[in-house]
């Protein structure tokens, strides 16, 4: 999920969307591992990943070029246990 509309923010919409994608990936596609990457400046995405059950695995330094320069990317992962 890239962004949520302003009126949906803080209402759990993004967490429900990510959780639905996780269920689909694990149950329908048989995936073993999912990763979620976001800019370390994007605290809302970090909260979504955490609430959806993803664990922080590390930071990729200067991994993505945005209009305002290079961003470090935090990596979260979830295993199908």
Task: Tell me about this structure.
The chain is α+β, with helices and mostly antiparallel strands and 81 residues long. It has a 3-stranded antiparallel sheet. It is globular and about 40 Å long. The chain has 2 helices and 3 strands. InterPro entries: Acyl_CoA_acyltransferase, GNAT_dom, Ribosomal_N-acetyltransferase. Pfam families: Acetyltransf_3. Keywords: Transferase.
In the predicted model, the low-confidence regions spanning at least 5 consecutive residues are none
Work out the helix count: 2
- How many individual β-strands? 3
Cross-sheet strand order for the largest sheet: 1-3-2
The termini sit apart by 23 Å
Supply the CATH architecture.
3-Layer(aba) Sandwich
Query: Gyration radius, to the nearest Å?
Result: 13 Å
Tell me the structural class: alpha+beta
Mean pLDDT: 91
Shape: globular
CATH superfamily annotation: Gcn5-related N-acetyltransferase (GNAT)
Task: Report the biggest beta sheet as strand number plus sense, adding barrel if it closes.
Answer: 3 strands, antiparallel
> Could you spell the SSE succession in H and E letters?
HEHEE
Number of domains as seen in the coordinates: 1
Helix content: 25-40%
The proportion of residues in beta strands is 35-45%
Pfam family, one: Acetyltransf_3
Keywords: Transferase
InterPro entries: Acyl_CoA_acyltransferase, GNAT_dom, Ribosomal_N-acetyltransferase
Organism: Microbispora cellulosiformans
